[in-house]
Backbone:
């Protein structure tokens, strides 16, 4: 067991929130076509509210603090907050940004303050593709310039790419660019439904056949046979496992102080403007309900072949209507990886098949004649 | 004999996990957990208290150990922690913690 795993186990046993993502703002200077956020400011926490929250998070044992948004550099007090988090509260800080406001001066300041990593959203190595996603002309060039400034300061930079129909053809070129710059690169085919429940952005997903091909790219997954192997059936151990770290050793705080199990799990558990963070973390009924769920408690998934190896996101399942239900996007991933449909997909196919098989009785129209219902 | 002063590296990340110190190195983001002696050094590293005084007042009172042996071990440990950029060490008192970010050191 690695030291990090040991620390996680200890945090889990002691109910300590080891890592927290704090979104400082939902405002943004890009308008990414797949973004799930509403970019208006509905009353962000003030500088002093955020510092008070950081005090509470440090007291609660939070070690890793991810500052994200929206675009974090749009907050005029960003460096004041960062300095407080690092130098007064000694968090291990990770930043998520589009980086278009980072120039040499900002990069130097980040180096002085010390951050663990800076994750930059990059969708393609080609401006015509990237800028069409961010809807900001010149944004790719600015983000790449920023990455160079940060690298020249010796900082760890990660490119984060969301695979969509618009950019999937470019992921190899993007990885080559990252490689040339000495930058790590992550790919994620998951698109998150919008905060208001609108799921239309999911239409940008790359689809089964393309996902199947991506999962067979040796450069991405390593040993393709191993990665795409048929999973072993779930046993007692795997069924007792936790679905993920959300609500167990990690959680998310919005710019308005709302606490959720995860940024991708929008079930409200409390607000730090009205309650102490630790009170929410320890005593929120919703947080404790999320915390109580084991794989064996899931509805359809318990009987699924993929239960032991699935990347099922409980937040995406919640957004589909049931936090104990399947997450269809993860079903699609398991299917694309192994060629074996999930229990959820089979159930849906059956229900669809049943609908298709309905036949009208001879002489009885399925659709009532006009005026029949009047 | 010269004295050794220690100060926590402000660029290291640190948190006590139920009494056990977790430290992430400022140099390469390696994660460390500190044993009891190293935790005492970390918590006492204010840049003003010399190592021999930390050993005498906080280590020898806690563990049954010869002062000279404890000091030698503590110095080796302090140098190791400095090698990972967890502590900064000096033969003169250190006041860097008060220096605001942005000023040349």
Residues:
């Amino acid at each position: 067991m690695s030291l990090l795993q040991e620390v996680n186990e200890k945090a889990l046993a002691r109910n300590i929130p080891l890592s927290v993502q704090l979104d400082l703002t939902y405002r943004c200077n890009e308008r990414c076509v797949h973004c799930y956020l509403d970019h208006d400011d509905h009353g962000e926490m003030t500088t002093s509210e955020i510092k008070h929250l950081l005090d509470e998070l440090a007291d609660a044992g939070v070690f890793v603090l991810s500052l994200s948004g929206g675009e974090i550099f749009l907050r005029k007090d960003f460096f004041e907050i960062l300095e407080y988090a690092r130098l007064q509260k000694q968090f291990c800080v990770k930043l998520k940004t589009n980086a278009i406001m980072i120039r040499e001066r900002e990069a130097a300041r980040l180096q002085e303050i010390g951050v663990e990593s800076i994750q930059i959203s990059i969708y393609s190595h080609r401006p015509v593709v990237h800028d069409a996603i961010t809807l900001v002309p010149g944004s790719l060039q600015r983000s790449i310039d920023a990455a160079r400034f940060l690298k020249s300061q010796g900082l760890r930079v990660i490119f984060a790419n969301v695979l969509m129909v618009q950019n999937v053809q470019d992921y190899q070129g993007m990885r080559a660019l990252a490689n040339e710059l000495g930058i790590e690169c992550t790919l994620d085919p998951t698109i998150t439904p919008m905060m208001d429940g609108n799921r239309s952005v999911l239409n940008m997903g790359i689809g089964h056949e393309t996902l199947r091909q991506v999962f067979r790219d040796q450069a991405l997954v390593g040993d393709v046979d191993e990665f795409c192997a048929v999973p072993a059936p779930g046993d007692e151990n795997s069924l007792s496992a936790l679905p993920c770290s959300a609500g167990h050793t990690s959680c998310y705080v919005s710019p308005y102080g709302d606490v959720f199990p995860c940024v991708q799990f929008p079930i409200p558990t409390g607000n730090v403007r009205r309650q102490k963070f630790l009170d929410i973390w320890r005593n929120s009924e919703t947080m404790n309900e999320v915390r109580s769920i084991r794989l064996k408690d899931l509805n359809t998934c318990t009987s699924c072949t993929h239960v032991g190896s699935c990347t099922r996101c409980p937040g995406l399942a919640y957004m589909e209507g049931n936090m104990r239900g399947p997450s269809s996007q993860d079903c699609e991933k398991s299917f694309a990886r192994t060629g074996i449909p999930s229990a959820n997909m089979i159930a849906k196919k059956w229900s669809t098949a049943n609908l298709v098989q309905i036949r009208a009785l001879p002489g009885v129209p399925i659709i009532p004649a006009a005026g029949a219902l009047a | 004999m010269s004295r050794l002063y220690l100060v926590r590296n402000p660029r290291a990340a640190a948190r006590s996990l139920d009494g056990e110190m977790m430290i992430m190195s400022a140099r390469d983001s390696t994660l460390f957990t500190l044993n009891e002696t190293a935790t005492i050094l970390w918590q006492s590293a204010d840049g003003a208290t010399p190592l021999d005084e930390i050993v005498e007042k906080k280590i020898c009172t806690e563990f049954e150990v010869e002062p000279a042996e404890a000091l030698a071990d503590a110095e080796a440990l302090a140098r190791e922690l400095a090698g990972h950029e967890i502590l900064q060490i000096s033969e003169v008192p250190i006041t860097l913690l008060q220096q605001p970010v942005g000023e040349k050191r």
Summary: Chain B has one domain: 5-86. Residues 38 and 77 of chain B are 7 Å apart (CA to CA).
